[in-house]
Amino acid sequence: MGKRALITGITGQDGAYLADYLLKKGYEVFGTYRRISTPNFWRLQYLGVFEKINLISADVVDAGSIVETIKLAKPDEIYHLAAQSFVGASFEQPISTGEVSGLGVTRILEAIRQINPKIKFYQASTSELYGDGHCASLNENSPFHPSSPYAAAKLYGYWLTRIYRDGYNFFSCNGILFNHESPIRGLEFVTRKISNSVAKIALGMERELCLGNLDAKRDWGYAPDYVHSMWLILQQKEPDDFVIATNEAHSVREFVEKAFACCGLDWQSYVKVEKKFMRPVDVTLLCGDYSKAREKLGWSPTVKFDKLVELLVQEDLDRWERWQKGERFPWDAPNYPNEGKIISRYQRIDR
């Protein structure tokens, strides 16, 4: 009989790809989603897995719903991906970010402790834990210095995962994943914002792309590669924490230049920098070192920067071309609001 897995946040980018991956491994997959007026299932539908999974309405701010979900799913493994995952939004909603991305981890760990301490637990940690001021590649022993409410909440979840491992002998692990992108990344994230806008500009649907800090550098990988690492982490003999990255950092400017070049366009003719897209506190450089994952998990990225940018732009270009021809399919871009209509409540702090 196959294993049973519970994925919190199954409707997000990583949740959808992980569901697809685990189904192919023979798992029975359960996933939580928040009960809202218009459920966001498009990614699961886009990957063709919506009909193959078991969905449970639950919320990580509601301990009772978490307990009932675990009792219902009876999982061998829990992959905790649910979070307020957008760094920019955490400045606008710092309290709810702490409730969801920080205390939500505690609620799940406590439920595991009470129901079945043998359940293996994966916590989606993040490279944002490291914050700013780093020049070298970051590994599992590098110091943390969170620079946003999102990162601070995630740091709380990181340490709770380790505390329950040490204090209660849990098989609980942190995957410290650096930025990872895909065609089903949310449009609020800069990579998908760029690829979507480049496609629309190339097709004559838009005239400009407005961005914030072009000099920020990130270690960008491919989401399907990264969900593979999540599974590998929970298959080890002993629980441990792992950095998952590509060992390369590229600036937003480089991403923009490459994306426009994919369509034969000069980015400087279309890109505009606006203050409202600057974060109050930004991280200038994040670059990971996945040596431990390579040695202990046998994991390495298969898609790196150039291929990743081309993949994202081509997918958005293909989708908009299909949409213009009248084809309809699960997708987020046609219903996404114009960012020019959205007012930000925070301003950048002068330093």
Précis, in short:
This protein is α/β, with parallel strands linked by helices and 351 residues long. The protein has eleven helices and 13 strands.
Description:
- The protein is α/β, with parallel strands linked by helices and 351 residues long.
- The chain has 11 helices and 13 strands.
- The chain has a 7-stranded parallel beta sheet with strand order 3-2-1-4-5-6-11, sandwiched between helices. Strands 7-10 form a two-stranded parallel ribbon.
- It is globular and about 60 Å long.
- Strand 5, helix 6 (149-168) and strand 6 (172-177) form a beta-alpha-beta unit.
- The model has no long low-confidence stretch (mean pLDDT 92).
- It has helices spanning 13-24, 42-46, 63-73, 87-92, 94-115, 149-168, 190-202, 223-234, 252-261, 291-297, 305-324, and strands spanning 4-8, 28-33, 54-57, 77-80, 120-126, 172-177, 180-181, 209-211, 217-218, 221-222, 242-244, 250-251, 271-273.
- Helix 7 (190-202) packs parallel to helix 9 (252-261).
- 39% of the residues lie in helices and 14% in strands.
- It has 2 domains: 4-180 and 221-244, NAD(P)-binding Rossmann-like Domain (Rossmann fold, 3-Layer(aba) Sandwich), CATH 3.40.50; 186-219 and 250-282 and 305-338, UDP-galactose 4-epimerase, domain 1 (Alpha-Beta Complex), CATH 3.90.25.10.
- The chain starts with a strand and ends in a 27-residue tail after the last helix.
